[in-house]
Amino acid sequence: MSSKIQLAAAAAASAAVTAGAILSYQRLQKETELSRLKQSIPTDPSSSSPSDLLLPRVKRNGPLPKPDKEDEHNRLLAERAQNGDFDEELILEQLARNRVFLGPDGLDKLRNAFIIVVGVGGVGSHASTALARSGVSKLRLVDFDQVSLSSLNRHAVATLADVGISKVQCLQRRLMAITPWVRFDLRLQKFDGSVADDLLGPWQDGQKPDFVIDAIDNIDSKVELLKYCYDHGIPVISSMGAGTKSDPTKVMVGDISESTDDGLSRATRRKLKLLGVASGIPVVYSTEKMGEGKAALLPIAVEEFQKGSVGDLGPLPDFRVRILPVLGTMPAFFGYAVANHIILKISGYPIDYAGGKARFKLYDATIAFLQSSEEKVVRATTAGGPDVAHGLRVPVTQGDVEFLIEEAYRGRSVVSDLPTRLVLIRWERPAESTLVQIDGQKSSRLRPEELVCMTKDEAARHLKDVLLGGKALGEVYSGEVIEKVEATRKRIERYARIFWAGF
Question: What residue spans carry the Low complexity bias annotation (predicted)?
Fold first, then answer.
């Protein structure tokens, strides 16, 4: 019996040793394969460290890997168009809606523009497509990645036939069938600071970029790109995170200093601040809050860690190893917001964006100030004692305040033209009581054309002198100010008739 136990123990020990040897061999084989794979990626010849791995610096202007008859037809048409053998009237007819909207001069500026798009995935592909369709004639597309099946839920133009080819080549392949006159400069590269001079440099004819689009989803590369553009005075707009977002009404365009609710923006902003850049870069971001039941970035599964170190799991050093939840529609909203900003900027079209988070605080403070001033006016014009205005509300929403301050008064005081500490206040002293009661709720009868935009100090004096003191407007303000108010009030009337018809 003892000999059998000894034999079994020996067999178990032998099996354990054998299993350990097999696992060690498999681990060594995996490490060898990983090392061989990394060594197959060309290194930068100027680098002193062989571990500084870079993608090959290649321009992909050659033939498509899988061309078909339609590709060949489109290529020949593009060749003719770019050699001047394409009717200018046909181009203008295709761009007719843009020309009417932007004007001939605005469209000419757009057609002569040179735009660089860094990252042509979900956001970048939609931005590039919109720019090409709108008339931009020179596009440099920068991306190291290929079209995959998972790209098709959000890419602007990719089809199943494009899976496996580079994203930059996919965009050229599809867009030359839409806008054959557009010239493309394709760069199959990963952006970093070492290649910034080349990738963000002039066009072949020496023209400097009119705008750069940052649609990169890697924070370090993003920061390097934005810092380079900031230091070299290159106009740039950055797209922040569309991943995990679902509410298109929360997509904003504003300065990077305002984008406090966006995770990618927050991380980018912090790193830029360490480099001395706190503002001055326009970004597209979302103010949407995460909540229960909404998509979120999940942690890496334990079994993934068991495959190797996190750095070994990514396709490139320092790149993400998780699939980011993305609703296919949201990158399009971000991409078109980016393209829209560039089109307006280059063509010289007026831009009046809604305010960011700080402006929303301004709108709330304005409503509070307006309610306080209306309480005083009601007390002054209504019999009934000091409690007559108790619980008074004003029929004004944050959207009304935003419209009046940002659009009607262009974000400036009608008195001094100052843009700081703005509020709204009634312009004329009412001839009779403005108090109304609806279902027991006290409210002030107030229409948008009766409000003017002033600084808080100016409004306090206006309340004291005009609304409560009884002074005539001509005693307090110049004829120029009064004329400006009357002209603005007329512009508000149409809005007032539609939106405030019930008051």
Answer: 44-56
Categorize the per-residue pLDDT at 311 as very low, low, confident or very high, splitting at 50, 70 and 90: very low
Question: 63: exposed, middle or buried (C-beta count within 10 Å: 0-12, 13-18, 19+)?
Answer: exposed
Does residue 35 belong to any structural domain of this protein? Answer: no
Domain count, the chain: 2
- Quick one: average pLDDT of 413-429? 91
DSSP 320-332: --SPPP--TTHHH
The pLDDT-based confidence of 387 (bands split at 50, 70, 90) is confident
Which of 318, 347, 376 is the last residue before a domain boundary? 347
Q: Kindly state whether residues 343 and 489 are assigned to the same domain.
A: no
**Inter-residue contact 116 to 209 (CB < 8 Å):** yes
Low-confidence winner among 8-12, 50-54, 265-269 (lowest mean pLDDT)? 50-54
Please determine, for residue 51, whether its predicted confidence score (pLDDT) is greater than 80.
no
> 205-225 pLDDT, tens per residue?
999 999 999 999 888 999 999
Choose among 173, 333, 363: nearest CA to 243: 333
Q: Any idea how long the chain is?
A: 503
Both 126 and 192 in one domain: the answer is yes
Q: For residue 194, what are the contacts with CB-CB under 8 A and spacing of at least 6? A: 44, 54
Same domain, 441 and 341: no
Between 263 and 12, name the one with better pLDDT.
263
Please check whether residues 169 and 265 belong to one and the same domain.
yes
For residue range 473-500, list pLDDT tens digits in order: 999 999 999 999 999 988 887 655 544 4
In sequence order, which ranges of 40-144 are alpha helices (DSSP H)?
A: 69-82, 88-94, 96-111, 122-134
**How far is it, in rounded angstroms, from Cα 95 to Cα 110?**
11
- Cβ neighbours for 261, distance < 8 A, ≥ 6 positions apart: 285, 286, 287, 288, 289, 357
Residue 114 has phi, psi (to 5 degrees) of -120, 115
Q: Are residues 170 and 204 in the same domain?
A: yes
Question: What is the pLDDT at residue 408?
Answer: 84
Q: What is the CA radius of gyration of the chain?
A: 31
Closest by Cα among 172, 101, 135, 119 to 342: 135
Please indicate, yes or no, whether residues 429 and 333 belong to a single structural domain of this protein: no
Residue 154 reports pLDDT greater than 80 = yes
Instruction: Evaluate whether residue 158 is within a structural domain.
Output: yes
